[in-house]
């Protein structure tokens, strides 16, 4: 069957899409059980400084589905945002990350790492979000200054005044903010000025092109300059090759994340020594 969608877009609904919809329905039913059945895992991907020393990690959720194996967040986070399961899931992520932060403070003292946690706008707009975050920090004993909340440009665009207020309250607790996937959304530069942001993360789609696409290269150098002049840190996401790493260092980027330094890994597999696997140019 064909269906006319708004304007002059013709959309076909075929067997493939039917299967897709069924798949999503099953996945959604299973997701309701995932927390109770203890199927969610946090993986951690290292972030390194200009000397390739590990300074922190980003927490990335995975779902260990009993039949499907490891389901990536791109497949179930959008579902969870739609049916609001993101609320209990998000609190589980925050709690797990904060417990890990507290453990590292005990083990490593001043060498303790930061943990960056992705937050969705559904979580952010809960009336008790600030109180719950504060409660989690207190309950786990995690140092708020080592917790980084990663927000997206679209989160900032929804009710900007409200978002600003929430961010100010959280940053008063000592929590830091990072703007994820920078350059892919529609954020106004005005937000950068008005919001208590600490870091920009340059999206991996731009990093991918720095060596052979002049437009990507220009976007990346402009972002680095912008961050420097606003006093923000800047992290390059999705760094996969030595050549990209070298280029970024030469253009003034001092923080990196990507497969070159390590894939997201379970805690037990994570190597948090002084030097990440990549060698310096
Ligand atoms: P993100 O926050 O931008 O995370 C970075 C993504 O890039 C991760 O995908 C990571 O595995 C991937 N990545 C890292 N280095 C490289 C690289 O060198 N090359 C390539 N090609 N990819 C790289 P992942 O883990 O599949 O997560 C996808 C997205 O799902 C995240 O994007 C984030 O938006 C969302 N997400 C993950 N965990 C959570 C969570 O706990 N809560 C919420 N709300 N969203 C989450
Ligand atoms: Mg950092
Ligand atoms: Mg992120
Ligand atoms: Mg990102």
TrEMBL record:
User: What are the EAL domain coordinates in residue numbering?
Assistant: 24-278
The residues that cross the membrane are none
What superkingdom heads the lineage? Bacteria
The molecule here is called EAL domain-containing protein
Where does this protein come from, organism-wise? Billgrantia sulfidoxydans
- Shown chain mapped onto the complete sequence: 298 to 578 of 578
